[in-house]
Predict the 3D structure of the following.
Amino acid sequence: MKKILAAVISGVMMVSLAGCSGSGGTTAATAAPAAASSEADTAETAAKTDTAEGSAEMGEVLHFKLAENQPEGNPITDGMYRFAELAKEYTGGTVNIEVYPNAALCDEASSIDQVMAGTLDFSRVNTNSLAPVVDLFGAFSMPYLFSDMEAKYRALDGDAGTMAFEELEEYQMVGLDYYEAGSRNFYTTDKPITSVSDLKGMKIRVQQTEVAISMVQALGAEATPMDYGEVFQGLQTGIVDGAENDFVSYYTSGHYEVAKNYTLDGHMAPPALVICSRKAWDQMTDSQKEGVRKASREAAEWQRQAMQDYQEESRAVCEESGCTIINVDVKEFQDAVSSVYDQYPQYQELVDLVRAAE
């Protein structure tokens, strides 16, 4: 039934969606070099012939587009550029991926629809954004799911990540690798959060996801969904008492200027991932797919470390500006939200795989 539904959705999208176009898959023709009389020309011709033959062995030259909503300079965007560079290298120049940062093609939610419909080739998305379309990915936003970074990627690079990627196939998408998007923590304008009891009655801005809302409510606070672009003003004017995000977003958004109390509880660490349309994937030869997968793996490993480094740099800047970093008893918070897991029994199998990797 899921396969039928996905096929119907995909068909409708291919007719109705527009604006985030990006399906390339174009083939570049290679002209035969002309015969040369000089020894130098002959050598140059031989080199060109060798290159052409290498491309022929790998496959036709393909051109794809990748949508990225983060701006230039962000470690996630840098990871996408690295992925594209390595993909070209490992496919002998036959797979060319052009990265469009800063939502130049479309926003993240639209990019998912377009990849599913086959009108966009690649996109880098967060599992929170993917969950409304492929529900299973909501499991990666369950509170306090990952005990630490090493356990997180043992799970994502292992059975848990594989299970989620297999679900993508029902929606005409192929998952490559998981990328780091930071660990989310609470921050407030006035009253600091030092224990669960401090959250009681607070208005906390959250993303528009069921799991995030359920978690904040379980902690005794009032969950207040709000567009990201409105959060600074909301904090500044007192519409909300606090919000939650990783150090990079806390810093780059300027939220640290108006919400000086940052509590290290690490309640969520949803990863990012690269998705490819089935249409684009099927255009590649086995050798090209192997090269793209190798490129993605190396880029993901590089990006995870780059994001960790940027998190530390962002924290240092925030501390220098006068922000207070608060350590708490995380187990108290974990115990307070244990009931949230009972609300999502459909995630249990995936959650068990994550826990098995600890």
User: Anything to note?
Assistant: The chain is about 45% helix and 15% strand. Residues 202 and 342 are 24 Å apart (CA to CA). The longest strand covers residues 261-268.
